């Protein structure tokens, strides 16, 4: 057996690395570490003893030498639960690290309530170096302000001299676990990874390298927002770092998580942004395959260095297992591997190159390749081959469709089986239930919102309506049939007829239960939806309030009908310009669904989509896009590919992508949604028109005036037929046509269309509605174009104030109006006013 003097430098380096990792990850359990590192090697124990003593002398965590018989847990920190620091009350401990402990806390004064995470410097490390490190970490957090980075809120020193700072409290899961639990497909995971890269790029732009990127430091909240944590070992890249700059190493220490560390980190060399890019590559590989490129569990430093620095990483597609393929939504292991082969393999392997200068030059470059793959565009990591680019071009033009109709067959089969198995004593009751279920299924099958168009839909509905009006059957059964008929008319865009059927259902329910019950409340909710479609928002609101009160009185707190009312109320609040309350109510609806029915994909698709729309309207484009991706994933799991519900969430996702500035991907998705809605709904359905006018606006904003004009006129062709005057598509199409004509030198006709659009919005929605304000802004833009500046100014100023008030200062509508004001004052030659509005625009146009 060798003596400590015989240890080679490599062996000592291994010991040092293992020891330092233990201090960083498990400072309260070093005995277990030492036993695992060398259970039968006293020389190794002695070497670690020497390292501990050397570490103590540099001002680190442990205060005294240790022996191999007993490792004292010195440096332990007293529990601060129940104490108060600054305005915060410490509630519970949530984590311990090598430099300190982290607690949950609540703001304890009367200003407002807010949960925070509070970090304290560990007792016994109040050396000059440790204090500098603590101040350094606090300064790093103060320098970073990004929606995907946990924010620094406050800081100070306790009465007994212990430094602390309060950070944003993140209630979330590691990104890998979050995706696995929701079984997100590859596309959804890539969109989520977009947020991670954006946060890292922000840190790099502020000259900060994270140096410890891993899933445990990348949390995702319930609404799909990524939060990057723990810049405790980050490094500033400034040359003029000053006296408070912390050295990259101290006493030879290397602080990192080996599984995610770059070759230069493992070797103890200086690190830069390329090290974070490497870690992002490892995280992306794990996110898409469930495994990291290298298995380093239990390896010594010399083995880790050999693997990370010399062994080529395997293609990520080869790491997939059947279990992982299923969690990614793949039909088979082969199909999942095919999805990774090519672009994604190349992207990850480029990030994992051994030489820093051969990786992506920045997190932004990695992000651009991921986005290019999502857009169906060539990626920089792949070779420039003609066949590759042609294949990408064809892929962007292909609409991926598949049919899913087995649900209806299974329902009918279940009805038949139930009827046959009924006993003679219950034959009549079973027959009535079977008839009701079968009628519900048949009418649902005719509903375009279920399986597609049928040329006899209206004939079926009209005939069923006549039969039910003359029926003397059970009021409960007749009410069910009336509701199904009403829902189908509503899906067809026959809003007036739908309203009449719902009114009839409400009356029948009332005849059975004059004081109301659960079914009566649901009927009121459906009637409210018809009034929303017709634009009668006050009456719709009144009905929803009645339904909510009835449910609270007659059902349990976990009844799913409660979420139905919350969702309907959120949609109505959007129409009433109360986005703040709408967001609160919609988040409550989503939380309810996740708690009560987490496996209901169709409901979760609706809730995520509706919340995403609200956030997008407020300018929170990154969060909105993540939620749209979740909505699409749930909708496809619930309905398959070729379904109106999938088309609906795709259409909204396309708008979110446009607001995020990802125009090629947005254009492609709009085309997919329009083609799908036309196929399953037909060219006269209001929902098809909705996608059309959204795409017309997209083309208008891209200054494709000919395309915008054609799409707008296609919508107006449905005016008075399947689109009532009150439908938002009508006034918006008038606006799009007017703007297009103004650019195509038909100025007189342009003004006529724009003024008609504004007048229709004021009549339908009221003069103070945000759509009316938006119409004023568009008319003001036109008047600027033709040089009528004095007429344009009051319209634009009033519109900007109203849109800021009801939609938020970062909403797309408010930002567009400020751009129009800058254009107005530039054209009017009023530079002071133009500069003022330009400054306001720049202050509010940053990433929300």
Can you tell me about this structure?
- The termini are far apart.
- The N terminus is likely disordered.
- This protein is globular.
- It has 848 residues and is an alpha+beta fold.
- Strand 2 and strand 3 form a beta hairpin.
- It contains 35 helices and 11 strands.
- Helices cover 61% and strands 6% of the residues.
- A 6-stranded antiparallel sheet has the order 1-2-3-4-6-5, with helices on one face. A 3-stranded antiparallel sheet has the order 7-9-10.
Note the main attributes of this structure:
six-stranded antiparallel β-sheet; three-stranded antiparallel β-sheet; disordered N terminus
Secondary structure: elements and pairs:
Blueprint: H1 9-25, H2 30-37, H3 42-57, E1 84-85, E2 88-96, E3 100-107, E4 115-121, H4 128-143, E5 152-157, E6 163-168, E7 172-174, H5 175-182, H6 186-205, E8 208-209, E9 218-221, E10 226-228, E11 235-236, H7 263-266, H8 273-289, H9 301-310, H10 322-327, H11 333-340, H12 343-351, H13 363-375, H14 386-396, H15 406-421, H16 427-446, H17 457-469, H18 475-492, H19 495-512, H20 518-534, H21 537-554, H22 561-575, H23 579-596, H24 601-617, H25 621-639, H26 644-659, H27 663-681, H28 686-701, H29 705-716, H30 728-743, H31 747-765, H32 770-785, H33 789-807, H34 812-827, H35 831-844
Antiparallel strand pairs: 1-2, 2-3, 3-4, 4-6, 5-6, 7-9, 8-11, 9-10
